[in-house]
Design goal:
The chain is of the alpha+beta class and 293 residues long. It is 14% helix and 34% strand. It is built from five helices and 19 strands. The strands form six sheets. Strands 1, 2, 3, 4, 5 and 17 form a six-stranded antiparallel beta sheet that branches. Strands 10-11-13-14-15 form a five-stranded antiparallel beta sheet. Strands 6-16 form a two-stranded antiparallel ribbon. The longest helix is centred in the middle third of the chain and has 15 residues. The radius of gyration is 21 Å and the shape is globular.
Length: 293
């Protein structure tokens, strides 16, 4: 008797369909042994992904020059900031959505809050109203809300008093000690702390982790876009003026009064369990594969 058999050799590596988060983390084993970068200077070269631990989850964040973290979502081009084990892919808009004041005022601590207490009720500050209106128009009304997950955003209200000024937690971390962190201190003020939302801004810590540096110009990291834009990290209160961290049009982390008008650069977190197409370059950005989910 003669037996005939047919064998098929399958290239499993190329046939696997990764989710968005899995695809970003595939081949990142080298990140697990990467030492923490030096945050006392700006990042001007391609440094890839670094790993840090936040609330029992590993978070991998991009640093320096990055050419493969572009995402086209809605009518906007975005950059991937980080991805974590909770399947959240954090995005920041490549360009500001518009110019707006963080707050109408700059006299009290509350002016640096995304929300603050007013007559025993929590009310939204200018920047939050702006972001929520933008989100409704550009995300919800376009049927994209189902791809965005609720995530934690840090408006760090912790502070210490100096002789003539109050310095907030982010100031100590990114100016005094060059030790940015994604851990948000507990809220002990009438504003701030950790918020669970669908939209926010970058923190000053995230800017430094991405490659920015306080008062040092840097045109060579992926957050640089030639614009002035706010973060959501309070900086200091001095001479009855409240300041918040921002990035200037030369890519340097600096500070501004909360009633200044600068760019609002939205940040959202995409569901990392979706499937995407593209390679993440500016010519072929990641896009949602809507047939998969």
């Amino acid at each position: 008797e003669v037996f005939k058999a047919e064998f098929q050799l399958i290239d499993t590596a190329s046939s696997i369909k990764y989710t968005f988060a899995e695809g970003l983390l595939a081949g990142t084993s080298q990140s697990t042994s990467k030492t923490k970068p030096s945050f006392d200077k700006a990042a001007t070269t391609s440094e890839g992904l670094y790993k840090t631990s936040v609330n029992n989850f590993n978070t991998y964040y991009y640093r320096g020059v990055v050419n493969n973290n572009y995402v086209k979502f809605g009518n906007y081009l975005w950059r991937i900031v980080s991805v974590n084990d909770a399947n959240q892919v954090k995005l920041v808009a490549e360009k500001s959505a518009g110019i707006n004041k963080f707050s109408n005022y700059s006299s009290t601590f509350d002016d640096a809050g995304i929300q603050y207490e007013y007559y025993y009720k929590m009310v939204d500050n200018n920047v939050t109203v702006y972001l929520d209106n933008w989100y409704k128009k550009e995300i919800t009304d376009k049927g994209l809300d189902k791809y965005v997950v609720t995530a934690k955003y840090c408006n760090d209200a912790s502070f210490e008093k100096d002789i003539s000024a109050y310095y907030f937690g982010a100031y100590e971390r990114v100016v005094d000690s060059s030790s940015p962190s994604l851990v948000c201190p507990d809220n002990t003020s009438g504003f701030g702390g950790t918020y669970e939302r669908k939209i926010g801004l970058l923190t000053a810590d995230e800017v430094v982790m991405a490659g920015g540096s306080y008062n040092n110009n840097n045109h060579n990291y992926y957050l640089y876009n030639g614009e002035n834009f706010f973060t959501m990290s309070p900086s200091h209160h001095e001479k009855s003026k409240m300041n918040i961290f921002m990035v200037n049009n030369n890519g340097a982390l600096t500070t501004a009064l909360t009633n200044s008008s600068y760019g609002i650069r939205p940040v959202i977190n995409i569901d990392g369990t979706i499937y995407v197409n593209g390679t993440g370059t500016i010519d072929n950005p990641y896009t949602i594969d809507r047939e998969q989910k």
